[in-house]
Amino acid sequence: MQGDSSDNIPGVPGVGEKTALSLIQRYGSIEKLYEAVENGTDDLKGKQREKIVENKELAEMSKFLGTINLEVPIEDTLENFKVEEWDKPKVLELFKELNFNRYIDRFSLRGEEAGGLNAEIKKETYKRVDKPVEEIIELIRAQKEMTFYLATEPDDDENKIIKEKITGISICPIGDVSFLDIRR
Q1: Which residues contact 94 (CB under 8 A, 6 or more apart)?
Q2: What is the pTM of this model?
Q3: What is the per-residue pLDDT across 25-62, written as a single tens digit (0 to 9) for each?
Q4: Could you write out the DSSP letters of every residue in 18-81?
Q5: Tens digits of residue pLDDT in 70-90
Q6: Domains along the chain?
Q7: How far lies 73's CA from each of 66, 68, 76, 77, 98, in Å?
Q8: 88: exposed, middle or buried (Cβ count in 10 Å: 0-12, 13-18, 19+)
């Protein structure tokens, strides 16, 4: 009978937590409350009775929306719910279809439109420069913007949430075509 705006359950207007609790304690259920109203055996008075009578459909719908269905058939096993890597092109396609532009940006899927960073970076578009780590650190500190790429490989450790391990990093100052590769 009491609404819940966070779950979009309307409830009966004018019935808050205390009133709903009191009514359910007295009548046992929404169905028994409305049965008493129909039989004239209820003890409701004035505006409260009027609101409850006028909003029977809202009360029934609110109960339906707030009831957890324990009889839903679940055919999956726990194995089917393991966290796995997304199929990013499929997710991007779905997000575009649903106009979830904020999520495309939030999950950095824009690069997937062109096949991702791996498809964009070709050996002929950059040159490898080996430098001591100290020089690389100084270069990073001096730059206001740069691009980086993390080289990864699968990590089969089932205790980890992130299933990739970083094996190297490539750093490129914006406007430069030199990549600094740091590999293990």
Answers
A1: 100
A2: 0.41
A3: 999 999 999 999 999 899 989 998 999 999 999 999 99
A4: HHHHHHHHHHSSHHHHHHHHHHT-----HHHHHHHHHTHHHHHHHHHHH---TT------GGGG
A5: 888 888 887 877 777 778 888
A6: 5-66 (no CATH), 76-120 (no CATH), 123-184 (3.30.720)
A7: 19, 13, 9, 12, 28
A8: middle
The tokens describing 47, both together, are 């505006």
Task: Encode burial over 18-48: b for 16+ CB neighbours within 10 A, e otherwise.
Answer: ebbeebeeebeebeebbebbeeeebebeeee
Cα–Cα distance, 89 to 110 (Å, whole number) = 10
SS3 of 171, please? strand
Angle between the N-to-C axes of helices 56-66 and 30-39, in degrees from 0 to 180, rounded to the nearest 10? 160
Averaged pLDDT for residues 90-104: 86
The Cα–Cα gap between 110 and 168 comes to 23
Q: Is the dihedral of CA 50, 51, 55, 56 positive or negative?
A: negative
The reported pLDDT for the residue numbered 115 is 46
Amino acid at 128: R
